Amino acid sequence: MCRSELAYSMWEQENPLTEREQDILRHLAQGSTVGEISGALFLSPGTVRNYISEIMQKLEAKNRIDVVAIAQNKGWIET
């Protein structure tokens, strides 16, 4: 590994989110409500809120808007 690849790999961060969490995050990025997400993914609203809370903890985000911004900046979801 050359020096530039090593430097890049130190900055590159792996996506810590599960596939389901990424699904929910994509819906959040589109502006969907908890109710809309629960209907689209066949989950209860409480389960969706739990997933959102877990996503926020993993990304160390303050709120849902912050979660989307962090994921977009890291290239984990489309901007």
Automatic annotation (TrEMBL):
It comes from Paenibacillus oleatilyticus. InterPro entries: Sig_transdc_resp-reg_C-effctor, Tscrpt_reg_LuxR_C, WH-like_DNA-bd_sf. This is Response regulator transcription factor. It comes from the Bacteria. CDD domains: LuxR_C_like (cd06170). Transmembrane segments: none annotated. Residues 10-75 form the HTH luxR-type domain. It holds the Pfam family GerE. The keyword Thylakoid does not apply. The keyword Endoplasmic reticulum does not apply. PROSITE patterns: HTH_LUXR_2. PANTHER family: DNA-BINDING TRANSCRIPTIONAL ACTIVATOR DEVR_DOSR. Keywords: DNA-binding, Transcription, Transcription regulation.
